[in-house]
């Protein structure tokens, strides 16, 4: 298995991890909004910020794995 294959696996794992993380955030946010509809705007803001951080880390991991080849 070459370096290119390992870089592709790393990029794939980063994408899967980001998808799982954002899915967890979205599900938890929907559950929270269902429990407290009056806090929907605060929950949505926190959810979007957390999703942006996850995307940034995932993008960084993909770039690092592709540079490593």
From TrEMBL:
CDD domains: ATP-synt_Fo_c
Transport found in the keyword field: yes
Cellular localization per UniProt: Cell membrane; Membrane
SUPFAM superfamilies documented for this protein: F1F0 ATP synthase subunit C (SSF81333)
Membrane-spanning ranges: 6-25, 46-68
Residue ranges constituting the V-ATPase proteolipid subunit C-like domain according to the UniProt record: 7-67
Function: Key component of the F(0) channel; it plays a direct role in translocation across the membrane. A homomeric c-ring of between 10-14 subunits forms the central stalk rotor element with the F(1) delta and epsilon subunits.
Protein name according to UniProt: ATP synthase subunit c
Gene: atpE
């Amino acid at each position: 298995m070459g370096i290119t294959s390992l870089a592709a696996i790393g990029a794939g794992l980063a994408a899967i991890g980001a998808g799982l993380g954002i899915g967890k955030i979205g599900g938890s946010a929907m559950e929270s909004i269902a429990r407290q509809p009056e806090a929907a705007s605060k929950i949505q803001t926190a959810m979007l910020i957390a999703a942006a951080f996850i995307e940034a880390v995932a993008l960084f991991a993909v770039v690092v794995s592709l540079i490593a080849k």
